[in-house]
Design goal:
Length: 145
């Protein structure tokens, strides 16, 4: 079950790409992470994001007013997604967030934090948390609770 990350922005600082790459490399093949980066004004961004989403994807919108999850709950959710076998697609908006169309398409809205985070940092936090959740499920020593 690969994860798909669709995010706005094309020229990310090297630390963003390095951070995402580092945690992506640690994930096993069945949880590989693919990045797609459509870029335009918010509505155009929304259309580009929607075009990149498969019709049967389970879409999770990263949204500050979404539901929050602990890392342990994320690990349990990840195990559930793995059992369902769906393509999981995470969408990250630009500085102004996601368009209404993207939010309406989402099957779930997830808030990583009550803080407003810069969207490049959201990429790194997302990929690290996916790796951490996987490590919990795999009894890997990365996560310490």
């Amino acid at each position: 079950m690969p994860f798909n990350v669709i995010s706005i922005g094309t020229r990310m600082p090297a630390w963003v790409n390095d951070g995402c790459l580092e945690y992506s490399k640690r994930m096993p093949a069945e949880f590989r992470i693919k990045n797609q980066s459509p870029s335009r004004a918010m509505e155009d961004e929304g259309l580009a994001i929607l075009k990149a989403i498969g019709p049967r994807d389970f879409v999770i919108a990263l949204d500050v007013i979404g539901t929050s999850m602990s890392t342990l709950k994320l690990a349990a959710q990840m195990a559930s997604w793995q059992m369902q076998g769906d393509q999981i697609t995470f969408v990250i908006g630009g500085p102004d967030g996601l368009s209404k169309n993207c939010l309406d398409r989402a099957d779930m809205r997830w808030s990583l934090s009550d803080l407003t985070l810069p969207h490049p940092l959201v990429r790194v936090v997302l990929v690290e948390q996916l790796y951490r959740a996987w490590s919990i499920n795999a009894n890997h020593p990365y996560h310490r609770s």
